[in-house]
Design brief:
Length: about 475
């Protein structure tokens, strides 16, 4: 004998953990609702080949809407569901007193076999308690099926909960046996009534549609409470400086603000580190004319100083600092256009090396009657010191980072996929920016002769737009 097991109908709630797209016999409509339709299916037992019963598939689990013996298949109780435990044409041969254990506490016992009357007395029990019994005659095919009908199943009467087909009775030298060729059983004891507004995880029952006739047997309409996934794609942007017109850098728009994924000097644009982001402080083609010793304040504590101008060798010695501390320097030569660009690449930026953090283009050097000046017509600067690494599971208010997709080629530069957060942490970036790895204070002003910042927002705005407005779950 085969022992069958089943899961309680309470497991119905499990269906919400899967994507709506995996629900069989369901339609996804434009408003995000998922419609699970009642369909009809045939019994496995050949003797019931001209009969059908209703079924509804919720995420791969089959449930049976309660139906009666005195109505057609369209008159089902769409929102009153029982899990289908058995629909079997397996053959069972049993002697008198033997039982078939059907799972979930249900059992079918052969109470008595009467050869004289050609009938068999069967009894259904659950957890050892009597449920129903029937003497089944095998004189005609119609009499060989026992339909177990119960009242008060989720408030409904005449509900079909089990079918048993007895194909024959045999007499042996010592024993009589009965042959059963079909069993159909629902877990009626754990049936459940669904009501509009019931919530199952991220789904809410929005509408119950009763059947009107074949092929419309009724439906359950579920609404997804969670916002759909939000995919933020990395794109390519051109530099403002005309001398870099044939170059691009990666950007990603997160909720209306642009950030730069860290990218190396020696790779393709799709080799950027999609989840390691920094704010863009400057992308400017504004002309700056500076003398030796002058400092250009770039904002956020960054500054560019002209250390020396050498007319004889046609070079300008430039130095980048942050909060007055040395970062990098370069003698920029005027001999070729390529050499006129100083690309500042740093190591150990969020654990990555050779990261482009700044580009400066020196247009020319001039000698006046008293002064020497350098003409700068392009500056690009990322706030690498406040870069941030995002990890899957990080929560930002309503959103959770679900997936990091690295770039593969020019058509796919990578993406960040956000879903709705189920839990909101109480630690806000605005309450404790130090825990987020940021400083909320604007940098102190340097004593500079020249002052420019092409950003239209305060120095800290690059991360305020994103980080300030979100609550984070810190890893």
């Amino acid at each position: 004998m085969k022992k069958h097991t089943a899961v309680l109908l309470a497991a119905l709630a499990v269906f919400v953990a899967a994507a709506a797209g995996t629900v069989s016999a369901a339609d996804n409509v434009s408003d995000g609702s998922t419609i699970c339709n009642v369909t009809i299916t045939g019994y496995e037992c050949d003797s019931w080949s001209d009969e059908q019963y209703p079924i509804i598939d919720l995420c791969g689990e089959e449930y049976v809407p309660l139906f009666t013996t005195n109505g057609n298949i369209c008159a089902v109780h769409v929102n009153k569901l029982a899990r289908l435990m058995l629909d079997s044409n397996e053959t069972h041969t049993l002697g008198q007193g033997e039982k078939i254990y059907l799972g979930e506490g249900y059992a079918l016992e052969v109470k008595k076999i009467s050869i004289d009357y050609m009938d068999v007395w069967l009894e259904l029990t659950r957890d050892g308690q009597y449920v129903a019994d029937q003497s089944i005659s095998i004189e005609t095919d119609n009499n060989m099926t026992w339909n177990v009908i119960l009242d008060n199943v989720q408030g409904e009467n005449d509900i079909v909960v089990m079918k048993v087909y007895v194909s024959n009775i045999f007499v042996g030298a010592e024993n009589c046996i009965v042959r059963i060729d079909g069993i159909w059983l629902i877990n009626y004891a754990n049936a459940r009534t669904l009501n509009v507004g019931d919530e199952f995880g991220e789904f809410t029952l929005k509408e119950i549609i009763n059947g009107t006739g074949a092929p419309n047997l009724g439906s359950l309409v579920f609404e997804n409470n969670m916002e759909p996934a939000l995919t933020c794609n990395v794109t390519a942007a051109g530099y403002e400086c005309d001398s870099w017109s044939d170059e691009q850098y990666p950007v990603i728009n997160l909720f209306g603000a642009e950030y730069v994924p860290l990218f190396p000097t020696d790779g393709n644009i799709w080799d950027s580190h999609v989840n390691k982001l920094t704010g863009l402080i400057l992308d400017s083609n504004e002309t700056q004319v500076l003398e030796a010793g002058e400092i250009l304040d770039l904002g956020q504590g960054y500054a560019l100083e002209v250390r020396e101008i050498d007319i004889d060798s046609e070079k300008a010695w430039l130095e980048l600092t942050r909060d007055g501390q040395y970062i990098a320097d370069k003698n920029v030569s005027m001999d070729t256009d390529d050499n006129r660009t100083w690309t500042v690449a740093l190591d150990d930026v969020q654990g990555e090396n050779n990261i482009v953090v700044m580009k400066v283009h020196v247009k020319n050097l001039f000698v006046g009657s008293e002064k020497r000046i350098v003409w700068i017509d392009g500056i690009w600067l990322a706030d690498y010191a406040n870069a941030r690494t995002l990890n899957v599971g990080d929560e930002f208010g309503e959103f959770t980072l679900n997936q990091i997709i690295n770039g593969t080629d020019a058509s796919n530069l990578g993406s960040l996929v956000f879903g709705s957060a189920s839990v909101t942490d109480e630690t806000s970036v605005t309450d404790d920016t130090s825990t987020a790895g940021f400083s909320s204070s604007p940098s102190s002003e340097n004593e500079s002769d020249k002052f420019t910042n092409t950003s239209t927002e305060p120095p800290t705005s690059w991360y305020w737009n994103f980080w300030k407005s979100f609550t984070m779950k810190l890893k």
